[in-house]
Design brief:
Number of domains: 2
Order of helices and strands: HHHEEEEEEEEEEEE
CATH topology of the largest domain: Immunoglobulin-like
Strand content: 35-45%
Distance between the termini: 82 Å
CATH architecture of the largest domain: Sandwich
Number of strands: 12
Number of helices: 3
Largest sheet: 8 strands, antiparallel
CATH class of the largest domain: Mainly Beta
Radius of gyration: 31 Å
Shape: elongated
Helix content: 25-40%
């Protein structure tokens, strides 16, 4: 009397770990046939066991097909993003940074508060880090804000920067400096793309806070 030489558990474990759809299907069928040929007549395989094992191999196949579909959609999405990004060349964007943008004698900058603040201070800094002007903006809500500063005869070549400090109840809160920059080019890499900015260099598309 022949006794099963291939265990149900071994076949199930193998099916769950298969990495190749074609190879997995072939090996699964061979194991299943071997089990049925060598099963104990007094203790035959249960139909539920066979169905369960077949469902496992179908699951492996389905997951691999789904992964392939998702990979294809990801690639197409990246291409669409790149095409959309090309239309940004020459446009202004708002990104994290503390370089003051000066146009027609007006210096502009911005900041983002993670929570409301009862006091916000903006300091204009020289290239060496010296404070050349201070603005008290008072209470501000959470979110993005901008400010203007009379820059006089200064230009972007002056290298002026700014620093933002916010407090709530005497405790310092989180404030992120934001600057305006111009998109010079778009570069693609992997599944995403980056913007080449005139002053900030390469910046990820996801880091852009706003478009002007």
């Amino acid at each position: 009397m022949a006794v099963s030489s291939v265990s149900n558990t071994a076949a199930s474990d193998w099916a769950a770990q298969a990495s190749s759809t074609a190879g997995a299907s072939d090996r699964f069928l061979k194991l299943l046939v071997a089990q049925m040929k060598n099963q104990d007549p007094l203790n035959p395989m249960d139909n539920a066991q066979v169905t369960s094992q077949m469902a496992q191999i179908q699951t492996v196949s389905g997951i691999e097909k789904l992964n392939g579909t998702v990979a294809g959609l990801t690639s197409q999405f990246a291409q669409m993003q790149a095409l959309q990004g090309a239309s940004l060349v020459g446009r202004d964007v708002i990104v994290p940074g503390n370089q003051l943008d000066i146009r027609e004698g007006v210096g502009q900058g911005g900041f983002e508060l993670s929570s409301a603040a009862d006091a916000v201070k903006v300091e204009i800094l020289s290239p060496s880090g010296q404070v050349v002007h201070t603005m008290q903006l008072g209470a501000q809500s959470a979110g993005m804000h901008s400010f203007d500063w009379d820059a006089g005869t200064a230009t972007n070549d002056s290298g002026l920067r700014f620093r933002v400090t916010s407090t709530l109840g005497g405790s310092t809160t989180s404030a992120t400096a934001l600057m305006r920059d111009t998109v010079d080019a778009v570069t693609t890499s992997g599944t995403g793309f980056s913007l080449e900015l005139a002053r900030s260099g390469s910046v990820g598309y996801a880091d852009v806070k706003a478009f002007n």
